Backbone:
């Protein structure tokens, strides 16, 4: 699914109005109808609903929702906040329609008033500002937003299109934004919903289709996409009936050190479960027996020199792919070995955890990483690699800039893991849950990504699919076991169910 900017959404609206064709008022009626149906599905007909409306089309939606909810027996009231002199045409038309049918439901609030605390159990709808926000909210309207924020604890708040004050395409950090339990957003995710800094502001986001013209959507380029099942299905390649173990590659995992052999086991097991043909693990001496017993299908190469994965007792070029990082530590010998490896091995590889920390601490080392490699930092590792950023929008820019400039596939872990590619595209993953926020989940991801590269998926496809099935397996595991009880081993156990889903 594409993610468009506020400007592109305005163009999509205009294109739809012109080419469908449909009047802009009817398009607003559709949008309000979609919101009304959602509200009716989730709240009883006798519910009192206070709808705070701005002077633009977001407010127009609010006025239409008031009328449509009244039609369906809800005690709905529209409070119109006069933050500008002039109402938009569709706002004015919907004001008139509400006045004609339900005059008692319309209340005007001049720009000096504060809102009164609604009685208990009143549902609040925020239709003050949408994609037309042209600057951070200030003055009187900022005061209204602060008052609505104070109602969050006692009332359910539903934002229309996006919480008022939130900028669709840029950071709203430290500006007044309504805090909502649910956001009913039209047709597309807005970029801002995916920023960790906005966590808890838009609440649960529900994307409501309103039939914007498919030609505009298809023809209009954007770097931003949601990675969803329909895309992953196009990437997934069922195995050939004539396959043998050589078909799916020989992968090398460099993982583990004393006290951290668990990371090696997790990445090795997930690599096997994700379908690698042959797996060798390069581990320190202390890990030999551990790997041989815990992961019988894997071969094991031991590092004689150090008691952590450092020197290489094997010719790296014989492996289809190398995954390196989980639990290796950052000792000088390990750093030395990684640097040598990056000089010798020129195919895409997977770099995670301490491999990233070593790269961050060694000037110029990132430029030796083979093109097309997959880097999987969490936010702290990201910061060590690429520096601090002022907000999540800037962080995305830095992410994409480095992916393009260095020819790497770089992700940034989070609720919506962002994945940036050398072609300039950025995808956000939607699978996964907070149960996966536990040590070892990342090691499992390294194993999956290494496995997919080994099987011949190209770098971009391997990252998109690997991150998706990692989250999906976590979701299956949480459904059965709860988020709290979920461990990284459970993610590995449910990988099978995730593949079955892609095959279905
Ligand atoms: N155009 C269309 O066909 C559709 C638009 N829809 C709705 O229309 C919204 C966009 O409508 P608009 O473009 O009219 O914009 P908005 O309704 O988001 O806001 C525009 C109004 O807010 C004022 N404003 C902007 N920034 C402000 C600030 N910081 N403080 C105070 N006032 C501020 C503007 O001067 C203008 O009066 C969408 O979010 C969506 O809710 C939907 O009805 C779907 C169809
Ligand atoms: K809104």
Residues:
């Amino acid at each position: 699914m594409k993610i468009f900017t506020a400007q592109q959404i305005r163009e999509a609206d205009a294109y739809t109005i012109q080419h469908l064709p449909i009047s802009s008022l009817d398009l607003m009626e559709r949008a309000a109808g979609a919101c009304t149906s959602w509200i009716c599905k989730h709240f009883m007909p006798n519910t009192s609903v206070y709808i705070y409306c701005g002077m633009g089309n977001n407010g127009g939606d609010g006025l239409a929702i008031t009328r449509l909810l009244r039609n369906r027996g809800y005690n709905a009231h529209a409070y119109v906040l006069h933050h500008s002199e002039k109402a938009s045409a569709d706002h004015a038309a919907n004001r008139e329609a509400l006045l004609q049918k339900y005059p008692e439901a319309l209340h005007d609030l001049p720009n000096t008033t504060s809102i009164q605390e609604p009685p208990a159990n009143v549902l609040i709808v925020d239709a003050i500002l949408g994609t037309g926000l042209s600057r951070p909210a200030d003055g009187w309207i900022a005061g209204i937003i602060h008052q609505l924020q104070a109602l969050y604890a006692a009332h359910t708040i539903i934002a229309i299109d996006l919480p008022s004050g939130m900028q669709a395409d840029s950071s709203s950090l430290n500006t007044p934004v309504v805090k909502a339990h649910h956001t009913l957003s039209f047709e597309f995710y807005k970029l801002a919903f995916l920023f960790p800094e906005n966590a808890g502001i838009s609440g649960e986001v529900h994307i409501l289709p309103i039939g914007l013209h498919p030609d505009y959507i298809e023809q209009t380029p954007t770097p931003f996409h949601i990675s969803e099942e329909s895309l992953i299905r196009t990437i997934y390649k069922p195995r050939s009936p004539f396959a043998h173990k050589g078909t799916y590659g020989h992968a090398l995992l460099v993982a583990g050190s004393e006290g951290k052999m668990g990371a090696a086991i997790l990445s090795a097991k997930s690599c096997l479960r994700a379908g690698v043909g042959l797996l060798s693990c390069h581990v320190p001496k202390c890990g030999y027996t551990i790997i041989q017993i815990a992961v019988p299908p894997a071969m094991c190469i031991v590092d004689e020199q150090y008691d952590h994965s450092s020197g290489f007792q094997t010719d790296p070029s014989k492996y289809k792919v190398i995954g390196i990082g989980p639990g290796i530590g950052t000792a000088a010998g390990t750093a030395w070995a990684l640097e040598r490896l990056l000089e010798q091995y020129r195919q895409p590889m997977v770099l995670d955890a301490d491999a990233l920390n070593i790269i961050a601490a060694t000037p110029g080392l990132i430029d030796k990483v083979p093109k097309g490699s997959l880097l999987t930092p969490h936010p702290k590792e990201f910061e060590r690699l690429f520096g601090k950023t002022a907000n999540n929008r800037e962080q995305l820019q830095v992410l994409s800039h480095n992916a393009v400039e260095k020819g790497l596939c770089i992700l940034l872990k989070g609720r919506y893991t962002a994945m940036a590619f050398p072609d300039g595209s950025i995808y956000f993953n939607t699978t996964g849950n907070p149960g996966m926020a536990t040590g070892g989940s990342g090691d499992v991801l390294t194993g999956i990504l290494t496995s997919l590269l080994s099987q011949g998926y190209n770098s971009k496809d391997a990252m998109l699919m690997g991150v998706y099935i990692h989250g999906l397996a976590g979701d299956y595991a949480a459904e059965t076991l709860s988020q709290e009880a979920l461990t990284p081993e459970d993610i590995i156990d449910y990988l099978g169910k995730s593949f079955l889903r892609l095959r279905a």
Summary: Residues 229-233+246-503 form a domain with the UDP-N-acetylmuramoyl-L-alanine:D-glutamate ligase fold (CATH 3.40.1190.20). The chain is about 40% helix and 15% strand. The mean pLDDT is 95. The chain has two domains: 6-221, 229-233+246-503.
